[in-house]
Each structure stands twice: as structure tokens, then as C-alpha cells.
Protein: Resolvase/invertase-type recombinase catalytic domain-containing protein
Amino acid sequence: MTLCQSSLKKLALRELRIKEAYEAGIDTLPEYQENKQRLQSERARLNALLASARKQETAKKQNPQNPSSAPVYTLREFFESDAIPPEQKAAFLCRVLEEIVWDKQKNRLSFFLRTP
Structure:
């Protein structure tokens, strides 16, 4: 249970207590109305926070960083894409390549892949 949900449950108990206080004659009608208004605004604030948290949770599930929802690229598309930051491209190369060797005499670039 989240903090917002537990706060909403406590708020429901407080609403019940202010109603009982009014019915028992402890609070006057203006006091009851003021307390009720205060608790209703608090409930609205908590519901907004809860909705925002749920929206963020849904957005995280649809995040492109999640491998299950990431688009599939060919290597060429991956490296030519402006949508993918250079840091992510570099991290990919570090995970896949063991070594890159430049042979100046033959003007050749050799890539050595990591073995699993």
C-alpha cells in the first residue's frame, strides 16, 4: 500500500470522526463545514498525487529503456539514428567489442568481439 493510499484511509476515518462530533453536538455546523471542506481539499490533493504516481508508473512501463518495448534496429540504423544518444551507442560498443585495432600501414580497422 502506498503512502497516498494509507493517507486516504486515515482521511476517511477523520471524516467519520468530524461527522460524529457534529452529530454529538461537540462541533457547530460552521465548524463541521469548515473541517469537512478542509478534508475534502486534502482528499483531492491526495487523489491528484495518486493519479500522478500511477501515470508515472504507466510511463515507466512504456519507457523505451525497457527492452521489451524498445524498437528493433539494424546496426546501421542504430548508429545512424539521431534518436539514440551517443552515450548509449558507446555503451553498446563497450559491451560488444573487446578491442578495436587500427593498422596504419594497411589502412585497416579491425574489430574484435567479446566472447560470451
Q: What stands out?
A: Residues 62 and 69 are 7 Å apart (CA to CA). Residues 75-113 form one domain. The chain has four helices and two strands. Strands lie at 97-103, 108-113.
